[in-house]
Amino acid sequence: MDVTYSIRALDDKIYGPYPLDSIQGWIQEGRINAETSMTRSDSGTWQRAGNFTELQFPCETERPPAPAPYSDTPPSLPGQSIDTPPSGGYRDLSVLKSGASWYYWIAGLTAVNFGAWLAGSSMRFVVGTALIDVINAFGEGAGIKGLAIVLDVLLIAFFVVCGVFAHKGHIWAFLAGMAVYLLDTILCLIAGEWLGVAFHCWALFSLGSALRLAWQMRNS
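Structure (tokenized):
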């Protein structure tokens, strides 16, 4: 029985098993290099690809720097949301995750603003949401501070959820979060908070870049 190989990507997802000729083809394309984590069906241990003597790697000067496995038939993995690593390699995956992390920053700084409001402080981070200020002002003005607190918590949770699923490459998470944050940018613009507008635009640009990569990964 021919041996097969499985590959562990940068995000710890496992791809495979693949036959030797597929692995060798990806090596020549630069999608696997000597440092890629692999296991062979007859060994069961994870090693660097360079440890398998049957694999032939090009010279260091010829090897592209962005390794990533690819399969015409996407592997079926439990909970997998992105079928295959991007053809651009691990660098693209890193850009996607970095962009998706903006949702955690937005949620975290909104939570800080929420805590400051509860403490009666005027401190505020511009990367947080202006929506929370609108909610809080409405709650205090209408005498329904309890409802404002619930809505604040839901808003923070919304961005956390977007961050979790955007990290997995879910397109809807990017679109939903960006739609709400775009509305928030408009509120900053109306209020004349120009520093806030600048930070919001920067965050939206980063999220948009990550969304583009997620879309490419799903359609590659």
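The longest strand covers residues 14-18. Confidence is low (pLDDT under 50) at residues 61-90.
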